[in-house]
User: Fold these one by one.
Assistant:
Number 1:
Amino acid sequence: MITATSDSVGYEIVDQTGLIVLDNPPVNAASHHLRHGLMQAAQALSVAEGVAVIAVYGATRAFIAGADIREFGQTPIDPTLPAVCLAIEGSRVPVVAVMHGPTLGGGLEVALSAQARVALPDLVTGFPEVTLGIIPGAGGTQRAPRLIGLAATLELATTGRRIEACEAVSLGLIDRVMDGPPRDAALAAAAEVLAGTLATRRTGDLTVPPDPEALTAAADRLAKSQPRLFAPPRAVEAVAASTGPLDKGLARERALFNTCLKSPQRAALIHAFFAERVVAKIPERDATPREIASVGVVGGGTMGSGIATALLLAGLPVTLAEQNDAALDRAFAAISKNLDGAVARGKLNAAGRDTLLAEDLVLTADLADLAAADLVIEAVFEDLDVKRDIFRRLDAIAKPGAILASNTSYLDINKLAAVTNRTQDVLGLHFFSPAHIMRLLEVVVAKDTAPETTATGFTLAKRLRKIAVRAGVCDGFIGNRILSHYRTATDHMVLDGASPQQVDRALEAFGFAMGPFAVADLAGLDIGWANRKRLAATRDPAARYSPIADRICEAGWFGRKTGQGYYTYDGAPEPNPGVARIIDEERAKAGIAPRRFTDADITDRTLTAMIAEAARVLGDGIALRPIDVDAVLLFGYGFPRFRGGPMHFADGIGAAALIDRIEGYAAEDPQFWQVPPLLRHLAATGQTFADLNGEA
Ligand code: 3HC
């Protein structure tokens, strides 16, 4: 009979074994009731007559996935996790932890305070705290070094790397791997403790050999690789304290943990954690997705090949259509190269790659071969007429119920749907290049798109291990619409006096992996050029226009692929002197005396432009919630995760201050710098973007 000690914990006694079961779905987060129940159960069993060993296991798909992230930032409720760990470590009878599934952060810390640890084969463990802007706060930085030494602990605690059961055993973090359901493994492990075949010891009683070189190496590595992150160096400081007495080390760890908890990076990183998950909460989430067993891809260029690669890697057979054999050969070469990269990254082995190419990929020059596909993704040249022609033909070929998707980056999905007799089955699936690597997928919902079609886009994204964000139809959807706007702001700054390199440096210092001009060189400057030509007819003649990018393209400089763009690429990238000349000429033509921009001016203007357009995207209903915009910029545009996304960042500035900025800039260019109505509304009502996320 199980005695409940809280909503999510119970215990039973089987012969001499006290069994504690943790049951806090979905992942056994160490919420208040779990901590309370675990403490009560451990205390009750340690004084229960006849109990000689306690085994703790999880009834959900994890032992304990970590502290309850939703409780961070709120007033802590006793017992705290460190107190629970101390109680377990101090238990009169030995405690064995049965670790299975994701046992991360606080979950590992609970296990480390037990006197023995066994794992089931599905264990994934580690200290992901730094990815959330904090450090292990329940003894992890003190107990792990006592088992695996300073160097190995530093690596785990500063990177957040997740490891599997065998690596955990070889490191000495856990004692052994066992089989069976968690309760059976718990009884078996307890029997071994009683038989003396599974050794027990209190982790806190062990000592840590000093290793000053490991500490210096870790600090140096972080200073080079992640100079802007707050938590990882704090993890090094905490681990350093483990060579002294346990109580002092624990106190040091707690103090550093609390400092991290208060840092803006913690709030931003946890916002990003939830952004990744909340975006799946769409109005169509109860619709039944269609079965997708095979996919057609039309177009074998960079995007088509990348999409085909992503599908193959997810186990979906692909039929790729191109116009002729030469184009098919190029697509095959591109897909093979992508798969080679996946082999090099350890995602699959060489035999697996060969099977995918030989058995799962069909290349055809005949669109009719897509008749059996459940989903066809069009990834041809970005031209409305070309795409409409393809959609018309696909509609005649594809079987009833097959979904037709476009990978367009900007074009109107309604206009593509309109040429078909299945408007309910048409949507946009906007992948980001390289499509087999980038995590974002914008699922663009057109006027008639059926809820099941949208839901299918989301299940496909999950299968591809991508983050899908729901977007409405407009030029550029969420991401590219915002990008176009802030890129215009950066182009204006270059015309007015900043250099492309200074803009890149300033935004890289803010945290972007690459500045916008370096990104443009990588993507190919011809893409933006084609888009500007497309929009030329509808451009407002009163809007300020910088011709610099067009002139660079007219010179035949399309970025990396042509060896020159904003930078030159023979060897390490260098500023292109030809571009500097073009900039000078255009300034002279426009009568502009170049002025100085500080790096702060550059980031302020770029971020303000980004936030303003994002507010309009929200106002127009193109994105569901501010947190969806954050997800797009974080997972598709390199926005620094530790800043949380533009909407989260905007809340740190405040609506009123943003309006002041925009009105200040508007003195020079009232056409471009307009205050979005949503920002005015927030300022007037005292709300934040976060308030608009609802339950998210
Ligand atoms: N706290 C609160 N909620 C959590 C959570 C946590 N630690 N971990 C997961 N969840 C929630 C998710 O938000 C999601 O909720 P939803 O259904 O409402 O969207 C639900 O659990 C399921 O999570 P996923 O969708 O992510 O499920 P997966 O199976 O894909 O992944 C997982 C499971 C590997 C556990 C993944 O959720 C994960 O990595 N979680 C974070 C683990 C972590 O970082 N733990 C350390 C926390 S910090 C800590 O312990 C501090 C300590 O040192 C004091």
Number 2:
Amino acid sequence: MNVYDSELVSTLLEKSGYTECKDLRDADAIFLNTCSIREKAEDTVNNRLTNFKHLKRKNPNLIIGVLGCMAQNLKNDLLESKPWVDVILGPDSYRRLPEILDERKNNLDHLVDTRLSRFEVYEDMFPNRRDGINAWISISRGCDKFCTFCIVPFTRGRERSRLIAGIISETKQAVADGFQEITLLGQNVNSFRTPEGDFPDLLKAVAAVKGVSRVRYTSPHPQDIDDRLLQVMKDHENICNHIHLPLQAGSDRILKRMNRTYSQKEFLNLAEKIRLYLPDCAISTDIIVGFPGETEEDFLQTLNVIRQVGFDSAFMFKYSSRPGTKAAEYTDQIPEDIKQSRLERLIELQKNVSLIANQKQIGNILQVIVEKESKKSTRQWAGRTEGNCWVVFDKGNEQINDIINIKITDARGITLFGERIYEEVQV
Ligand code: 5AD
Ligand code: SF4
């Protein structure tokens, strides 16, 4: 989401006559697009801002700006502790950026705008994208789910959807710019709702755009995955057989305290249903360990669900208390050493589960888009499967962006290895 927002911001600035420079020391203005999801993300931004203080000493006219969730969440803190920050803009205020930069020429006060909007979806602003295979397209903003650990509903405000027609125009533009993979983005993509239709309708419409080789979406909420969505995925070859399905925790007690609105059983049934509709569907997830009140027994339940579902991959986090959220007020916070050891145990298990899932692919022929040179060798390419798994293979006469068939010969860690299969031409 932040990559997309940064693309929006740089497009806005380019339209107003600014150009991007690669070296920070050459910049007249520096903007940090920030994230508040965990304390670690905020620490990273604070460290960078501290470094920028020296740049400002050398160039007093330099404008330093903080954008996004931290601007929303910590504006008073920032104004007090980092007085060299000039501009603070929340996620719904980016349109004001060119105007604010102009204003800054005559007004040296801090410029702050963190008002949240019920309507802003940056509808008519197509971002300039960087090179690559995949174009991110934001379809909705904000979130109304209020999971008790999560800061997003507070920093990004109420949920609102873009119009299908606007998303389709942006998809066509991305294809014309050479992108063949589209990833639809939202805090809760599948609660997308407009007078023109809901998420399955949108997915169908995007898949029908000429030149779109792959459609992905992230992240859905398990509660809102229905049969219609799975049927649309089944009916369209170019919608990837991959669902990122955040579990967060396996124990019913913790799921309830997290306000996730599903039970362990319901999640397991959903995973089963996904595989009934889409037998080869990759399923990935997000897990939080050390949520307030999580006992060893609760944690073991999480490990159990991971084993049962056999997730292809997982993003795994230690719970990070976010001031202002409900869970931050729970009195039974878990000590850091327990969180750390649970995270390590979880990572160890998931490593094996991913390896087992990947080993099942050995012998299969998978469709891969050639994406870049492999990090390890200039004689090999790396590309991604529909399930979003990296595959490394020897270079032949194919080029970046080609869609080819690869026979999987090995699986190591989270990477697959294979060789190109040339289709037999039937005469
Ligand atoms: N602590 C740890 N992880 C969090 N996430 C969201 N909020 C927190 C938090 N307070 C994780 C969830 C979510 C992912 C984007 O970030 O797993 O799905
Ligand atoms: Fe946060 Fe996702 Fe829950 Fe919304 S659905 S509150 S973004 S974790």
